[in-house]
Amino acid sequence: METTNTSNARGHILASIREHLAASREHDEKLRVHGSAAAVVPQSNGGKGSPPAAQSNIELFKTNLEAVNGHCVIARTELEIVHALTRIISELKHTQLNPRRIALSDAKGLERLVRLVAVQIDEVAVTPSSAEMFDVDIGITTAQAAIAETGTLVLDSSRERHRLISLVPPVHIAIVEASNIYSTLGEALSLLQSDQEISPIVTFITGPSRTADIELTLAIGVHGPQELYVIIYDGPPLMS
């Protein structure tokens, strides 16, 4: 009798899983064809005029990043990237952090841009050692992709040495090209893999580090950066 009951229970569980998977596939297909409902800008037109316009991937990424306490700036030239970096670091100078040391990944052209920043910094180091990382105030990297529907950055360690730089310093600044912002996680991973084999270490970053493990109270910056700034570069290819 016990074996029969167990078999029946297993059958009900598997049937429920199949039912929900089927519903999920149908829902995913609707999203693929019609676009996510989250990608619509809510606005009231009193029943007149054109329907609400769909957000671009840039706008949707910015909206979702800021919803999880991240900061987002859009730059259309290299000079605007430099101005954005200058403004971010200058503002941080007036906080308790008062950054003095910056660590950079080995992304092409990144050091050249940071050297143009008009803020006094004691030290700028490219891919410092693990021990040195704990004395760094700001980590600056690029990102290989971003996901609009969640405001998530995708960092592939096979293309850039940035893992510790993005995770250890109290502030992380990431530069991502607008053309590398994809609608969904699946699209981002598919396009990354179509270019070359994905690294065994891919880091997903959605907003500043946060945890609620301690007495169920949300704490920011416990396991990583307490501030995340993303500069979206929507311009011609960056120079090396």
Structure notes:
There is one protein chain. The chain is an alpha/beta fold and 240 residues long. It has 2 domains: 2-34; 57-233, NagB/RpiA/CoA transferase-like (Rossmann fold, 3-Layer(aba) Sandwich). It is 36% helix and 21% strand. The protein has helices at 2-34, 57-67, 78-93, 110-115, 130-133, 163-167, 185-195, and strands spanning 71-75, 101-104, 123-126, 138-142, 145-147, 152-156, 171-177, 181-182, 202-205, 210-211, 219-220, 227-233. The strands form 3 sheets. The protein has a 6-stranded parallel beta sheet, sandwiched between helices. A 4-stranded mixed beta sheet has the order 8-5-6-9. A two-stranded antiparallel ribbon has the order 10-11. The radius of gyration is 22 Å and the shape is globular. Mean pLDDT is 81; it is low at 34-53 and 216-221.
Mean pLDDT: 81
Query: How would you classify the helix and strand content by structural class?
Result: alpha/beta
The CATH superfamily of the largest domain is identified as: NagB/RpiA/CoA transferase-like
Give, in order, the helices and strands.
HHEHEHEHEEEHEEHEEEE
Q: How many separate domains?
A: 2
Second CATH tier, the architecture of the largest domain:
3-Layer(aba) Sandwich
Roughly how much helix do the residues carry, as a percent range?
A: 25-40%
Radius of gyration from the CA trace? 22 Å
Choose one word for the global shape: globular
Distance between the termini: 72 Å
Query: How many DSSP H or I helices?
Result: 7
- Briefly note the CATH topology name of the largest domain: Rossmann fold
Extended strand count:
12
